[in-house]
Amino acid sequence: MSRSGTDAWPSWLQGPRQHLDDLLGRGHLPQALLIHGVPGTGRRRLALWLAARLLRLPEEALVRFASDAGGDDESGEPGLGHPDLMQVRPPPDKAAIHVESVRELIAFLQLTSHQGGRRVALLWPAEAMTPAAANALLKTLEEPPAAGSIVLVTALPARLPPTILSRCQRLRVPLPERALALAWLAAAGGAGDWGAVLDFAGGAPLAALDWSRAGLERQLADYASDLEQLRRRHTTPVAVARRWIGGDATLALRWLYLHAAAGLTAALADAGRGSGAGRLQNPAKPTNMPLQRLRDAEELHRHEVRGLATEVQLAAVLQRWYGDSPTGDGKH
């Protein structure tokens, strides 16, 4: 899907892009580059833009390919097709990049360019490489082909072997300041509750944009409404747990964790002003403490097992949080 120029080139990517442009202009771009940062900040867009520059594509093509890269830079396939470009990702039904894929990448880089320029290999997420795949890549990083460039993209550079890290120049894509991210989201996506969606996306604007387009705002409002209904005793923990786990359990449990974290942050702020100590230390009802709620939500989020077991665990947590609720079918 094509996107607007505002959407295609977020302002926080201008610095990293300019840095790469400067390196290219001075002939100092390394043959092995590692682009890293939080998912949803545009790492993949930047990698595709660099590939297009290395392949000497016209400026309008650079914008189009960056636009086609998608919002959440872990999803979808970009529209950058070129005979001198190879993109390596885990197979659709797999989580790992195996050694066979890396061997294909190595063989590709050793071929002569179709258009007399460079051959470019993009690999992401780099942390998905198996040990054998990383070892196979290492020799090529030590002695890269003269006309070959390798760009690795990762959210977790610490999971890469030190030998791989030491042979790549690193470029971090920053997480933008909240005000900047909100302004960009309003310009790219129009009016909406961007604060809630951005928080859910961990402050990553491109991920927030994708979540919003998938209808996240309505789902978050539904979760909040369910907890309010629980507080008012208009529904039951069992009914809420059944709805949440019967839908997108991962989404629901992530939201519950973020909700609990926000509650703890608010309680700490109140305590700092001398007005909320009781919210943190209430021996009469310790399970209602914000810290305990966060621990409960973290446990659910960390050990999620889809199905009845998770539903029962979630219902038990909500029962502890909100006390006795009326029996029944949970209808509002």
What keyword list fits this structure?
single chain, 332 residues, alpha/beta, Rossmann fold, 3 domains, 5-stranded parallel sheet, 16 helices, 53% helix
Secondary-structure map:
Blueprint: H1 5-8, H2 14-25, E1 32-36, H3 43-54, H4 59-68, E2 85-88, H5 99-109, E3 119-123, H6 131-142, E4 148-154, H7 162-166, E5 169-172, H8 178-189, H9 194-200, H10 205-213, H11 216-231, H12 237-246, H13 249-272, H14 277-280, H15 290-302, H16 308-322
Parallel strand pairs: 1-4, 1-5, 2-3, 3-4
Would you mind describing this structure in some detail?
- Helices cover 53% and strands 8% of the residues.
- The chain has 332 residues and is α/β, with parallel strands linked by helices.
- It has three domains: 5-172, Rossmann fold (3-Layer(aba) Sandwich); 178-212; 215-322.
- The protein has a five-stranded parallel sheet with strand order 2-3-4-1-5, with helices on both faces.
- The radius of gyration is 24 Å and the shape is elongated.
- The two termini are 39 Å apart.
- Residues 1-6, 69-79, 276-280, 282-287 and 325-332 have low confidence and may be disordered.
